[in-house]
């Protein structure tokens, strides 16, 4: 992955985290890695555990950020969530999968991005 893409992804995750905290969610984990893959953010919304996939785009040339989540990616996230729940064996009354789609627009010459547009899809799948 190029440095530009990695930095865009990190920036998107930071924006998503700030957005979620402003909405009252409490972040409990970030970038949870397993042999199978990675979950971007995990948060609590009241008693509901929320697995959050963050997608950030600076262009919509290849489609929107939310359109980039395929059936295969959804299935992988479900498997990762089950693995996380089993590993952290705590009683969880409910859980859901959210998607945060961020469009930053083109970067300026200084490397800064335009004001981002954040879309939050609760219970996305």
TrEMBL record:
Belongs to the UPF0102 family. Gene3D superfamilies: 3.40.1350.10. It comes from Brevibacillus fortis. InterPro entries: Restrct_endonuc-II-like (IPR011335), tRNA_endonuc-like_dom_sf (IPR011856), UPF0102_YraN-like (IPR003509). Signal peptide: none annotated. HAMAP family: UPF0102 (MF_00048). One of its GO terms (molecular function) is nucleic acid binding. This is UPF0102 protein C7R93_11180. It comes from the Bacteria.
